[in-house]
Design brief:
Pfam families: RRM_1, RRM_5, RRM_8. This protein has 434 residues and is an alpha+beta fold. The chain has 4 domains: 56 residues, Alpha-Beta Plaits (2-Layer Sandwich), CATH 3.30.70.330; 92 residues, Alpha-Beta Plaits, CATH 3.30.70; 120 residues, RRM (RNA recognition motif) domain (Alpha-Beta Plaits), CATH 3.30.70; 71 residues, Alpha-Beta Plaits (2-Layer Sandwich). Helices cover 24% and strands 26% of the residues. It is built from 10 helices and 23 strands. It has a 6-stranded antiparallel β-sheet. Strands 16-11-13-12-17 form a 5-stranded antiparallel β-sheet, covered by helices on one side. Helix 1 packs parallel to helix 5 and helix 6 packs across helix 10. The longest helix has 18 residues. The radius of gyration is 23 Å and the shape is globular. The N and C termini lie far apart (53 Å).
Length: 434
């Protein structure tokens, strides 16, 4: 399997928890992998009993080992540790502004010659791999920049040493750059290349090729499985790879792209949305990956919105071509799955009568919340509470349709000077003392 084989393995298991050790038994074509704790190992095993894991098209079989503890030279299997390397794995948290290769180069080049930069979007958020010419530059950059913000109050850097030896860069553009080879093309010409993706051990960047798509698919499936306690929700296969869904039977007088975004972004990151001009009650919605699209189709089929039952199906179009009539959401900071994806997956459900409001102003009152939402239906009950020092609220409508309309129209609107976030709550009723 080689070095890339160990990266592929880490990619399969990383979403379930921290991998503390990995030993490759090359002669037997086997590997021993130790998770940091037993629940992580159990949830990985449970998940891969239902979903067949593959590496490079070959099935992989997972079972518990009789070894209680592995001793290994390479303690930092995941490249998450303090063992210095000239390649850094950088995660950017609270990314309110888009970060490009240029921005990263400005930030990291004062510490030494940067040879290559690759950026990619993961469930953990925006990540980059930065390769210096020498290891000492990487050590200095990490020491100086760890925990710092690129911009005032946002775009915080979380920096670890990667365990990769060399970055492979095929294109020079906003997402990847080889500063030692300025003559690379800006994008791929013709057929898709099968450049392998990097596993999340050093970050996985979306390569143009089936293998990379399959790996990121597995990682997302695993993140969701971990969120749902080791298994997938009933009816979710985890094997869909179509990212675009067709929504029909919309109320064309009342719907627009932002309202669709507010609803579909509950199930994944939205790339772009297009209302079909020749069929005004139809729209295409492209999500971040096939898993998120499957969640949207599963949970929104038949939902009532503006007096109509939504039809939600996978589209025959693999993606939506950008154009004058498309709305772009790729870099929207309203996308919900850039940070803490597992938590958001856990809250995925079909529309309910109860909505949950967060990022409310500290001095908000229940009366203000009611007057902000009551045009959408009869409010049966409300509860204002504090969680981790932040004001949140539950609002119960008489019907699911009213709650859906309130979410679609009022998510990301301003209330008392704050942009509020709204999602469905799976609570059946508001208990006074809860």
């Amino acid at each position: 399997m080689g070095r890339s084989g160990s990266n592929d393995l880490l990619q399969l298991f990383q979403p379930f928890g921290v991998i503390s050790k990995l030993v490759m038994l090359r002669a037997k074509n086997q590997a021993l992998l130790q998770m940091q704790d037993i629940p992580s190992a159990i949830s990985a095993l449970q998940f891969y009993t239902n979903v067949q894991p593959t590496i490079r098209g070959r099935n992989v079989y997972v079972q518990f080992s009789s070894h209680q503890e592995l001793t290994t030279m390479e303690q930092n299997a995941q490249g998450r540790g303090d063992e210095p390397n000239r390649i850094l794995l950088v995660t950017v948290h609270h990314m309110l502004y888009p970060i490009t290769v240029e921005v990263l180069h400005q930030v990291f080049s004062p510490y030494g010659f940067v040879e290559k930069i690759v950026t990619f979007q993961k469930s953990a958020g925006f990540q980059a791999l930065i390769q210096y010419q020498v290891c000492q530059s990487a050590v200095s950059a990490r020491t100086s920049l760890q925990g710092r913000n690129i911009y005032d109050g946002c775009c915080q850097l979380d920096i670890q040493f990667s365990n990769l030896d060399e970055l492979q860069v095929n294109y020079n553009n906003d997402r990847s750059r080889d500063f030692t080879n300025p003559n690379l093309p800006s994008e791929q010409k013709g057929r898709s290349s099968h450049q392998p993706g990097y596993s999340d051990a050093g970050g996985m960047y979306p390569a143009n090729g089936a293998t990379a798509a399959a790996f990121s698919q597995m990682a997302n499936a695993a993140a969701i499985a971990a969120a749902f306690g080791g298994g997938l929700p009933p009816g979710i296969t985890g094997t869909n790879d179509r990212c675009t869904v067709l929504v029909s039977n919309l109320n064309s007088d009342r719907i627009d792209e932002d309202k669709l975004f507010n609803l579909f972004s509950l199930y994944g990151n939205i790339v772009r949305i297009k209302l079909l001009r020749n069929k005004p009650d139809h729209a295409l919605v492209q999500l971040g990956d096939g898993f998120q699209a499957e969640l949207a189709v599963h949970f929104l089929k038949g939902a009532m919105l503006f007096g109509k039952h939504l039809e939600v199906n996978f589209s025959k179009h693999p993606n939506i071509t950008q154009g004058a009539d498309t709305h772009e959401y790729m870099n929207s900071n309203l996308n919900r799955f850039n940070r803490n994806a597992a938590k958001n997956y856990r809250y995925c459900c079909s529309p309910t009568r109860m909505i949950h409001l967060s990022t409310l102003p500290q001095d908000i009152t229940e009366e203000e919340i009611v007057s902000h939402l009551e045009e959408h239906g009869t409010i049966a009950n409300t509860k204002l509470f504090e969680m981790n020092g932040k004001k949140q609220a539950l609002v119960q409508f008489e019907t699911e349709e009213q709650a859906t309309e309130a979410l679609v129209c009022k998510h990301a609107t301003s209330l008392g000077g704050s942009i509020i976030r709204i999602s469905f709550s799976q609570l059946q009723e508001i208990r006074e003392n809860s």
